[in-house]
Write a structure and sequence with these properties.
The protein is built from two helices and 15 strands. The protein has 266 residues and is mainly β.
Length: 266
């Protein structure tokens, strides 16, 4: 009998049917980051017991839209763009584990199934959504250019409801693309037991960051953001009390695994 192959389900004798290919995974894309401050207690609600608020600027939040192209090591997706391109919107806060400060994704939505499953493997709590981000142009008039006055919009909707929308206008160049999402990520990977008895087969605290990172010139500017209510989301509890700034940058990075920090199973 043939041994089943594949990084994740479904596995078969070829390994080609797996929804996610073997790492490494390469990413290239444009990112719009909107940073603001909310009430620290609203961030604390989203942290598990083993994590605490960052000691400095504990209410800082970033909402990020990314328009990605991503592929595996043999680059076969490049000529099959339906498996190459996707968009996501994610919410990042900062937190402390032991004596180190991390970035943590508390909400995230994507528009492709492989991106959702890939995120679950990494510990991102991904859901499906409808996501849009204005693309910069270099010729013509049907969009903003990456220069002062260029104005971008971004939206994320799920189950027929708008969850978040933003507007960003470039005011100049920036040395970075913000500080909230600038640290190693810390995530929980968990999966409940089939007995459905309230315990988990898998419950790990993990950390990771990309390798071989590249980035373009970053731009900063004024930003606006609106968070809306939904019967299956709590995003509106992070309502801004102070805007920080918006940022635009193109980035490239590779993911090739992470590190388990702690096994949290009872």
């Amino acid at each position: 009998m043939a041994r089943l192959k594949g990084f994740i389900f479904p596995r078969d004798s070829t390994g080609k049917t797996s929804i996610v290919p073997d790492p490494p995974w390469h990413y290239s894309g444009d990112m719009l980051t909107i940073e603001f401050r909310t009430k620290p207690e609203s961030v604390a609600e989203l942290l598990p017991d083993h994590l605490s608020l960052a000691p400095d600027d504990p209410g800082a939040v970033a909402v990020i839209w990314a328009d990605w192209q991503s592929c595996s090591a043999d680059f076969n997706e490049v000529t099959d763009p339906d498996r190459l391109q996707y968009k996501e919107c994610f919410v990042v806060v900062r937190c402390q584990y032991k004596d180190q400060i991390y970035s943590r994704c508390v909400y995230i939505w994507v528009d492709k199934d492989y991106a959702m499953v890939r995120g679950h493997i990494q510990g991102y709590p991904k859901k499906m959504a409808d996501i849009w981000l204005t693309r910069p142009i270099t010729v013509g008039k049907a969009g903003p250019k990456l220069e002062e006055g260029g104005t971008f919009g971004a939206t994320c909707s799920a189950y027929g409801r708008r969850l978040v929308e933003a507007k960003f206008t470039i005011s100049g160049l920036s040395e970075n693309s913000g500080f909230v999402n600038a640290l190693p990520m810390i995530h929980n990977r968990f999966f409940p037991r089939i007995e459905a008895d309230g315990t988990d087969s898998l419950n790990e605290l993990v950390t990771m960051r990309g390798i071989d990172g590249e980035s373009s010139q970053a731009f900063t500017g004024d930003a606006e953001i609106k968070l809306f209510e939904s019967p299956v989301e709590r995003l509106e509890r992070l309502q801004p009390i102070e805007m920080i700034a918006g940022y635009w940058q193109s980035v490239g990075v590779t993911w090739n695994g992470g590190t388990t920090l702690e096994d949290l199973r009872d």
